[in-house]
Amino acid sequence: MTASNSAYVHGYSRLEERRLLDQAGTLSELLHQDTRYPTGCSVLEAGCGVGAQTVILAKASREAHFTSIDISSESLAAAAAGVRAENISNVQFLQADIGHLPFDAASFDHVFLCFVLEHLTDPGAALKELRRVLRLGGTLTAIEGDHGSAYFYPHSEAAQRTIDCLIELQARIGGNAEIGRQLYPLLRHAGFGEVSVDPRVVYADSSRPEWVEGFTNATFVAMVKGVKAQALGAALISESAWDEGIAELERSAGVDGTFNYTFFKAVAYR
After folding, report:
1. Which residue in 13, 243, 264 sits closest to 147, CA to CA?
2. DSSP letter at 84?
3. Which of 41, 163, 174, 261 would disulfide-bridge 121, Cβ 3.0–4.6 Å?
């Protein structure tokens, strides 16, 4: 990692790669149904990771050209493999630091980033650098979650403590798991104009089994479960309290449970 990035709290395992791909598939319509780019335009995807969003974007705008960057060579290799598997030809990959981009000013018509700012130690500086490479009149689209927006039934303080462990662990390495609510001021302070932020709400109950499985279980609960070793290692919680909290959190995916979470999608102009 470079100075402009914090460590990735979720790690780089194959299990995490699978979670990211499952998450992208589940949230595709909710987050990306209104993201389309014109024929011939150049788009910088900043922080593409394993390409979970790349495939969705490139398929939706096949006549646009995407440059997808990430700091991790392993993630880029996975992203490139995923694009090849889908026979997508309008994406090129490049290893680069989002805080020190190897591009001239005004190189791109549009910039896109999703679930990236939460992992940066200085998201404001990164946004200023992204603004530098965006042409006048171009747009930046940023999507972030907000773990503080998660609420569920049955309510459980034990379950909330497991979520709080994830939030605390991310903060300790310089990230911010509650950054979604801050997109508007971050973009304004970075110099962008005409900033608009649209909350995208996930709600899951047993009448929506695809959301219960795809989001509550496979995305959110899986994400929290993934930091167990770190939470115990940092002495944030005892193992018995962790196991109790996870069991309680899983109840929200039961027949009488509900789960709610808010993502924030911002569009801003250079």
Report:
1. 264
2. H
3. 174
CB of 180 closer than 8 Å to CB of 117: no
Quote the tokens at residue 27.
């949230």
Mean pLDDT calculated for residue range 7-33: 73
Residues facing residue 266 across a β-bridge: 142, 197
pLDDT of residue 8: 62
What span, in angstroms and rounded, lies between the C-alpha atoms of 51 and 84?
11
Contact yes or no for 186/247 (Cβ under 8 A)? no
Distances in whole angstroms, Cα of residue 22 to Cα of each of 55, 93, 156, 230? 13, 22, 26, 23
The pTM score is 0.91
Q: Is the pLDDT of residue 201 over 90?
A: yes
| Domain ranges, ordered by start, for the chain | 14-269
Name the fold adopted by 14-269. Answer: Rossmann fold (3.40.50)
CA distances from 117 to 56, 150, 174, 175, 195 (A): 20, 19, 11, 8, 16
Backbone angles phi, psi at 14, to 5 degrees: -65, -30
